[in-house]
Batch of 3 targets.
Target 1
Amino acid sequence: MKKVLIIVISIFLVIILANVFYYKSLYNKQINYIVTLLNRQVQIAGFSVDSTDSFFISDLNEISYSEDPGAFFTNPDNQERVVDKMKVFYLRYRDFVAGMKLYDNRRNEFTLKMDRKTGEWLEQRFVLHMQGEIYNMEKLVEENRIFEYYLPVIQENSTVGNLVVTVDYENYFNAIFSGFNLKDYQWQWVINDSGQIIYDNTQRGISYGQIDRITLALESVSVGNLIHNAVIDGKDEGIVSSYYSTQLLQRNLGLVFSAPTGVFRDYIIRSSLFIFIGTLLSILAIVYVLIRYLKKRESENIKVSESEIMLHKLIEEMPVGVIIHKKNREIMKANKVAANHYSYQSGEEMTGIVFPETTLANVDEYFSKNLGGLLNPEQFIIIRKQTGEVFLYRQSIPLVFMSEEANMEILMDVTLLESARRQEQVE
């Protein structure tokens, strides 16, 4: 029973170690998978932002180069063509553009917007009370969280006005990230070159740790990843983040895709727990059956042991010689009567020796001469001693002794009978 307990404890420890190894291996695989996935997704989003930044300015300049915005307020034909160009540009970047306007140095201004619900264009032309500031260079201006990109309108080598695009970063990032946001499993956020979060679609008020590491990394690499902590709903949790360095209208930005590690950890723990419990129950069932079997065997062994004790006692008390030997004739048990026949002090002295049988040569010849071949010589043993010959009648009985096949030889002393027979022959 003690061995069984040791085996059970050993198996239990092996299961625990196997589950720990399985958990770590599966957890690392899950983390590597999500890192690879986030890296690929953040690069896809980053390439889209890079493309927007690259073509946005060139497409906006194309309006100035192909037409003459400086003559917008004086030439109706020119005005119509410029408005058409502005609408095409607006539609191309409708997720980023919130409105457009064109004004000159004579306080004339034209605004263009589109109702996002109905798709209708809203156009207005009016004269300003005060002349708006005219920028001689391309510039992104932020005012009350509204960003406006100014493009100079050149006429006869001088700046006569500005073509202005109002951009909506939040709406743009909502559109870019809409296909990737998975609520509690994956979300996106954007930081500027100062480490300030300018966009976060989690809407959960997450406080991120080690943002400075991401900001510093974005200065030297275009893409990377980091496992760090964040405070989510007041709880400190581990997250994995992949980031991408990009630029959008003169703003250095970092796109960040994040996913919580706890979701994968909890899933793996649940899976490992089910496997562990299932394996443990199976082992317990096997152990239960094994214990039942061992108890049955133990009960049987006790019965066998009691039977053997009884047989030992019976052999010792028998008035005839008894020898039990294996198939190779090695003696396993002998009583005192049998020991006396072979001139031993006790049966224990005979244990382990080879069953000697007769000590007289030419036994078959003896029986042939004296008994006329009437008896089977194999049923008799003749032992020669100093006082004469001892005649033993033997009876062999096969049996199982001490869980081993054996033979029990019962030896009856018939010396007196043989002497009487000889005397009768003499007379």
Target 2
Amino acid sequence: MELLTSSKFKLPYLFFITDREEIKELPLGVPFIYGDESIKSDIIRILEYEILYQKAISTGLPFDFRQILLDEGYTGLQDCHYELPAYMDCISDDNIDEDILGDDYDLGKSIKEDPTLFNTFIRDSAVYVNIQKIKELNVFPLWFDKLENAIETNIHNFAVFNDYMYNKKLDGMYGGVELSSPNRNLIIIDISGSIPKAVSSTCLTLSKSLAETFYADLLITGTISTLYPYENLHELNVQTIYNENGMDNDQIYFKKLVTSEKRTYKTCIAFGDNHHPGSNYWKNAVSISDEDGKKMCLWEIDKLISFHTEGTKHIAGYARWFDPKEIEKIDNWCKYLK
């Protein structure tokens, strides 16, 4: 456990934890990020980007974010999102023109040759992920204007007042506070090639902390889909996830997950674009309508919070087979800077 610091800026008061057992040592409400030691520098970089971006926004003037980063001494900046503009355009809709891609195009080729590209993706300066939008869900303790806000959030989420609880000291049914057992939630992160690299790598960097705070299972979907139950979050290695899961879109593994076992989630937070498990474009996949997908899906979702890279017109693709009672679409969380 350590307090995060930066050589460039004063960071928000934020602890970095690599051992889940250390979370129990923190007083309720103290903000923290939980993740692997290998991503500490990435988390600091994300926080530095956030500080610079918010300062630039506060001026009310137009700005070149990439130039700001260069002026502040950042090196190795990438424009990952704009590597394949034709591919990005042709797959933003359900109808895909294979002639644009070419017969020999392999989206996963570069990542297979260099499994360390996560470190490159995190330096993508073409897209900015607005952390404030995630923080507003009150499930991610990044930083707060006042520590009391964090304490209030934690107490309300995990403790309730039981009017009928027996009070031993007073020898009567005078009530008291007891810990509640929060309902489990689900987080879906699409890391396929059509997702801007700054988006997928930022979400992955924050994934363990988000899942820990939100008491959530984590589903990573690329060429294959992998479910990390809350109890097994320690098994997730975000540095190698692109190489392990690939960067195409999956139907087979996702369908097996949601049809083989019933799961009930209070809330699902889904990060993605229009790509969905019903598409027949991907290898060994068949076309499955949303209606048929919902009939097959055994996972029950009470509320869906959709982070779609293109706004609020659609919901994130890998949430299309769910039938939630409530849907909330988050806008302005993904900024294209050029």
Target 3
Amino acid sequence: MNIYVDTSAFLAVLNRDDERHAEAKAIWLRLLDDGTPMGTSSYVLLETAAVLQNRLGLDAVRTFFNAVYPLLEIVWVNAELMALAVPLLTTANRRSLSLVDCCSFMAMRRLKIKRAFAFDRHFREQGFEVQGE
């Protein structure tokens, strides 16, 4: 996997009403055209599905799992990854930083992934190169 995809990017790509939709779609299509290996975590999948269902309905969830999910390498969050992410969350002491974000950061570090497709400033703050934002 060469780039980690965050919930914020998935939502922008899939929601035509998102203010970043055009930019996100262009980035997504470029990554696909370039054959860039993309991945995400099981927590991002869960978070994306929940937000899509809430905001856009089950058709959007079906589209996500039928068209996007098969293109991704998945990092499954396990006890070891959680043990790394929880201290990051609690020591950061910031309400806007989520456990999903912290699991993403720790997964990226373990896999030596330097780039994220995200519209979330926390990725840049954590030292990652960001496509989007």
